[in-house]
Amino acid sequence: MCEIRIGDNCFLAPGVHIYTATHPLEAKDRISGAEFGKPVTIGHNVWIGGRAVINPGVKIGYNAVIASGAVVTKDVPDNAVVGGNPAKVIKQIDNGQENEG
C-alpha cells in the first residue's frame, strides 16, 4: 500500500512483519472501508529480531536493534536497542564499543 525503505546491511530475522496499511479509528469511518498507508523507513545497519512487528509510519534510525517480538509503534532513534509491547528504548549503543554477544 505504501513504500518500505530498507537501508544497507540490515538483518531481518524470520517472522518479521512490516505494515504500511492503516485505517481510521472511528467505527463509522472504518465501516466505510477507508484505508490509507504510511511509509516505513529502516536505516542502515539495523537488526530486527524474529517476530518483531513494525507498524505504519515508523522510522527506525541507523544502527538500531529491535528485540525479538517487539511491537514498534513509534520512531526508533539512531543507535538504540528497543524491545517490548509497545517497544521502548532499553539502551543506547556506544559505537565506540564492540557489540556484545
TrEMBL record:
Pfam families: Hexapep_2
PROSITE patterns found in the cross-reference section: HEXAPEP_TRANSFERASES
Sorted UniProt keywords: Repeat, Transferase
SUPFAM superfamilies named among the record's database cross-references: Trimeric LpxA-like enzymes (SSF51161)
Any one annotated GO CC term: cytosol
Gene Ontology terms for molecular function: O-acyltransferase activity
Entries under InterPro entries matching the protein: Hexapep (IPR001451), Hexapep_transf_CS (IPR018357), Hexapeptide_acetyltransf (IPR051159), Trimer_LpxA-like_sf (IPR011004)
Family designation: Belongs to the transferase hexapeptide repeat family.
Protein name as catalogued: Maltose O-acetyltransferase
Organism: Paenibacillus sabinae T27
